[in-house]
């Protein structure tokens, strides 16, 4: 038996119920069924299916391709098209939504089951590739030469690399779920006032290079560390900002060199 949840989008009730019986016979669950593209988009949020069987020709203002496109833009859920139409224009539109399969009506149970199993297998392999890619990215960031903190768009910390942990004095376990200001405590060295919130600055201005003049990090053990800071937005496929990346590095050595150079100039002026 399997535990995958499959949503059926079909405006012919008898056909939809027949597909539902077949799916339940295969061992899948059918948490919801929709008869229009509008309902399909709405029900996705409610029932969180693992796969969608989508009829192309539907009642309502949008067809199955438009509904699948909207779902593809907002959710990572594979779609298999069910249709009695196979004209070239329809197929070209359908391809743009990157479906996991396409079944022509009428179809038998074996064809339906085979397409579902292939789609779910492909989806699982994609998840494995994504997981491997995320591990690669994490490994890269962990070994990056500068300190990195990433947040969501509310300023809640989602990741800190080892150098960021070393400079702030907080472990990633301490920091995850905390607001960035609680962990990344930065002040202006000239007046001791809190520096700008780097997440807010990214959301307000986009990428920035430098937070405030003479920015200092106050670590967990109250060590003062002069910093240079860079901030950049994280965006999704729709170019919406969903978080920030804050990169910072210790410039103590640079500050000491500048101080020595100024003393040298004064001595020989």
Set down the secondary structure blueprint.
Blueprint lengths: L5 E4 L3 H14 L6 E2 L2 H11 L3 E5 L8 H11 L4 E5 L4 H8 L5 E4 L4 H34 L4 E6 L4 E4 L1 H7 L3 H4 L4 H4 L2 E3 L9 H8 L2 E2 L5 E4 L5 E12 L5 E10 L1 H16 L2
Parallel strand pairs: 1-2, 1-3, 3-4, 4-5
Antiparallel strand pairs: 6-7, 6-12, 8-10, 9-11, 10-11, 11-12
Structure description:
The chain has 269 residues and is α/β, with parallel strands linked by helices. It has ten helices and twelve strands. It has helices at residues 13-26, 37-47, 64-74, 88-95, 109-142, 162-168, 172-175, 180-183, 198-205, 252-267, and strands spanning 6-9, 33-34, 51-55, 79-83, 101-104, 147-152, 157-160, 186-188, 208-209, 215-218, 224-235, 241-250. The strands form two sheets. Strands 6, 7, 8, 9, 10, 11 and 12 form a seven-stranded antiparallel β-sheet that branches. Strands 2-1-3-4-5 form a five-stranded parallel β-sheet, sandwiched between helices. The longest helix has 34 residues, at 109-142. The protein is elongated, with a radius of gyration of 27 Å.
Quick recap of the structure?
The chain is of the alpha/beta class. The chain contains ten helices and twelve strands.
The string of secondary-structure elements, in order, is EHEHEHEHEHEEHHHEHEEEEH
Count of strand segments: 12
**Average pLDDT level:** 84
Structural class: alpha/beta
Assign a percent range to the helix content.
40-55%
Largest sheet: 7 strands, antiparallel
**Low-confidence spans:** none
Q: Note the gap between the termini.
A: 86 Å
> With helices defined by DSSP (H or I, 4 residues minimum), what is the helix count?
10
Based on CA atoms alone, the radius of gyration comes out at 27 Å
Q: Which term fits the overall shape? A: elongated
- Seen as an oligomer or otherwise, the chain set is single chain
- Strand portion, in percent? 15-25%
């Amino acid at each position: 038996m399997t535990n995958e949840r499959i949503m059926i989008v079909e405006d012919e009730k008898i056909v939809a119920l027949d597909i539902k019986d077949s799916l339940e016979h295969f061992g899948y669950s059918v948490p919801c069924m929709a008869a229009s593209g509008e309902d399909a988009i709405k029900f996705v949020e409610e029932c969180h299916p693992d796969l969608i069987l989508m009829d192309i020709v539907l009642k309502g203002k949008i067809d199955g391709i438009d509904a699948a496109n909207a779902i593809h833009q907002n959710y990572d859920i594979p779609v298999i098209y069910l249709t009695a139409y196979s004209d070239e224009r329809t197929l070209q539109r359908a391809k743009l939504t990157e479906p996991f399969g396409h079944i022509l009506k009428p179809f038998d149970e074996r064809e339906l089951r085979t397409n579902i199993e292939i789609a779910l297998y492909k989806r699982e392999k994609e998840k494995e590739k994504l997981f491997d890619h995320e591990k690669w990215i994490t490994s890269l960031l962990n070994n990056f030469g500068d300190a990195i903190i990433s947040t969501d768009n509310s300023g809640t910390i989602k990741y800190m690399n080892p150098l960021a942990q070393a400079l702030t004095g907080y472990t990633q376990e301490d920091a995850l779920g905390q607001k960035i200001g609680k962990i990344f405590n930065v002040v202006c060295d000239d007046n001791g006032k809190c520096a700008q919130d780097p997440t807010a600055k990214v959301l307000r201005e986009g990428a920035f290079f430098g937070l405030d003049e003479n920015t200092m990090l106050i670590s967990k053990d109250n060590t003062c560390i002069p910093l240079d800071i860079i901030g950049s937005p994280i965006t999704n496929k729709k170019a919406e900002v969903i978080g920030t990346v804050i990169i910072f590095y210790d410039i103590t050595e640079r500050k000491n060199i500048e101080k020595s150079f100024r003393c040298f100039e004064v001595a020989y002026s």
